[in-house]
Design brief:
Largest sheet: 7 strands, mixed
Structural class: alpha/beta
Distance between the termini: 16 Å
Oligomer: single chain
CATH superfamily of the largest domain: Type I PLP-dependent aspartate aminotransferase-like (Major domain)
Bound molecules: pyridoxal-5'-phosphate
CATH architecture of the largest domain: 3-Layer(aba) Sandwich
CATH class of the largest domain: Alpha Beta
Radius of gyration: 20 Å
Strand content: 5-15%
Shape: globular
Strand order of the largest sheet: 1-9-8-5-4-2-3
Helix content: 25-40%
Order of helices and strands: HHEHEHEHEHEEEEEHEEHHEEHHEH
C-alpha cells in the first residue's frame, strides 16, 4: 500500500471530460494570452470571494510582488509578516527592495500573533502581510483595525486559503488586497503556475493590470516599468472547471480532517489548532508531535507520504541572514518547525485509507 500526500491524478480522473473539453476549446480558439478565459475567471473569482475586482497574474509570488509595487512599497520601507510560512511571503518584500520584519505566531493556530503585531510597527512600516497558514484564516478585521491606526496597507497572503472563512467572511474579502496561488498542489490548483489578486480598490486593480503587462494600458504605450506576468488561457480554462468543484472539495477536506481529529484523539499527537471563529479548508492537515522523526519513519515504512511544513523558519533562512535575526527570536515558530508534520488529506482519500494511516501513527 502506498498513499501519496496529495493525489492529483485521482482528482483529474474525476473531472477528465470537462478538463479535456476546456483545453480543446482553448486550442480551437488559439487565443492564449490575456483572452476571454482569463477575463471570465477574474469575474468568477471576484464573485466567489465577494470582491469588486480580481486581477489574474502568472503565479502567487508575482501576485505579492505586483501588489507591493502597486502600493508604492520599496527601498527604506518595512513590511511585517510571519516567519512560519512559505518563503515567498517574505521573499517578495525583499524583492521590491523593502525590509521584511517578522512577528512570531500564535501557538494554537500558527497564524501571526496579533497580540504582538503592534509592537513591531515603526515609522518605516508601510504594510502587513498576514498569511492564512494551511488554509485557516486569521482575524483580518483585527489586523485592519491595527493597520488603520498606523495608516498601513494589509495584503492577505491567501495562497493556501481560497474558500476559507472567518466569521462567515471569505479569505481575501477583508484586506486592502489579497493574493492567491493556483500552484498545482494548492487547494484550487492549475496544471502549471497561476495566481490572482482580489481587491475592492478599483484604482489598485487598474495599476495591477498595467504592471502585469509591461506597464501598458494601451499596447506599446508604456506608462511605467512593469512585468510580464499573465495567467494564460489554458490555465484559466482549467481553473474555471475546477472552481465549480472547489466548495465540494473543501468540504471533503474538512470531513477528512474531522475523521483524523477523532481517530487521533486518544494519542499524544496534537491535531491542527483551531480558532473557533474560523472555517478552515485544510490546504494541509498539519499535526504536531515531539516524536516527529520516529513517526516519520513509521509512516515511511507503512508507505504513507508525509512532509515537514516548514523545516526552517524564515528568520533563520540563509537568504535572510543580513536581517540579523538569531535562534530564539521567534520561539513559537521555531518549535513549530521542529514538530509540524503534514499527512495525506484530500477529497479522494478514502475512510479506509484514513484508518490505515491512523493505525500506523498509533504504532
Ligand atoms: C504557494 C505560496 C505562495 C507562492 O505561490 P506561487 O504560485 O508558488 O508563486 C506564497 N505564499 C504562500 C503562503 C504559499 O503557500
Amino acid at each position: 500500500m502506498s498513499i501519496p500526500l496529495l493525489d492529483l491524478k485521482a482528482q483529474y480522473l474525476t473531472i477528465k471530460d470537462e478538463i479535456d473539453q476546456a483545453i480543446h476549446e482553448v486550442l480551437d480558439s488559439s487565443v492564449y494570452i490575456l483572452g476571454p478565459q482569463m477575463k471570465a475567471l477574474e469575474k468568477e473569482i471576484a464573485a466567489y470571494c465577494g470582491t469588486e475586482e480580481a486581477v489574474a497574474v502568472a503565479n502567487g509570488t508575482d501576485a505579492l510582488v505586483l501588489t507591493l509595487k502597486a502600493f508604492g512599497i520599496g527601498e527604506g520601507d518595512e513590511v511585517i509578516t510571519t516567519p512560519f510560512t512559505f518563503f515567498a511571503s517574505a521573499e517578495t518584500i525583499a524583492q521590491v527592495g523593502a525590509t521584511p520584519v517578522f512577528v512570531d505566531v500564535n501557538p494554537v493556530t500558527l497564524n501571526m500573533d496579533l497580540n504582538q503585531l503592534e509592537s513591531k510597527i515603526t515609522p518605516q512600516t508601510k504594510a502587513i502581510i498576514p498569511v492564512h497558514i494551511f488554509g485557516q484564516m486569521l482575524d483580518v478585521e483585527r489586523v485592519m483595525e491595527i493597520a488603520a491606526r498606523h495608516d498601513l496597507k494589509v495584503i492577505e497572503d491567501a495562497a493556501q486559503a481560497i474558500g476559507a472563512e472567518y466569521r462567515g467572511q471569505k479569505a481575501g474579502s477583508l484586506g486592502h488586497a489579497a493574493t492567491f496561488s493556483f500552484f498545482p498542489t494548492k487547494n484550487l490548483g492549475a496544471y502549471g503556475d497561476a495566481g490572482m489578486i482580489v481587491t475592492n480598490d478599483k484604482d489598485l486593480a487598474s495599476q495591477l493590470r498595467m504592471l502585469r503587462f509591461h506597464g501598458c494600458q494601451t499596447k506599446y504605450y508604456h506608462e511605467k516599468i512593469g512585468y510580464n506576468s499573465r495567467l494564460d488561457e489554458m490555465q484559466a480554462a482549467i481553473l474555471r472547471v475546477k472552481l465549480r468543484y472547489l466548495d465540494q472539495w473543501n468540504e471533503g477536506r474538512r470531513e477528512r480532517a474531522k475523521v483524523y481529529d477523532q481517530l487521533l484523539a486518544d494519542t499524544k499527537i496534537q491535531p491542527p489548532g483551531l480558532d473557533p471563529l474560523a472555517t478552515p479548508i485544510y490546504h494541509l492537515y498539519v499535526l504536531r508531535t515531539e516524536e516527529r522523526s520516529t513517526l516519520m519513519e513509521r509512516l515511511k515504512a507503512g508507505g504513507v507520504a508525509n512532509a515537514i511544513y516548514y523545516p526552517v523558519p524564515l528568520h533563520l533562512q540563509r537568504a535572510f541572514r543580513n536581517l540579523g535575526y538569531k535562534m530564539g527570536d521567534f520561539p513559537v515558530a521555531e518549535k513549530a518547525c521542529e514538530q509540524a508534520l503534514a499527512i495525506p488529506c484530500y477529497p479522494e482519500l478514502s475512510l479506509e485509507q484514513q484508518h490505515e494511516i491512523a493505525a500506523i501513527i498509533k504504532g
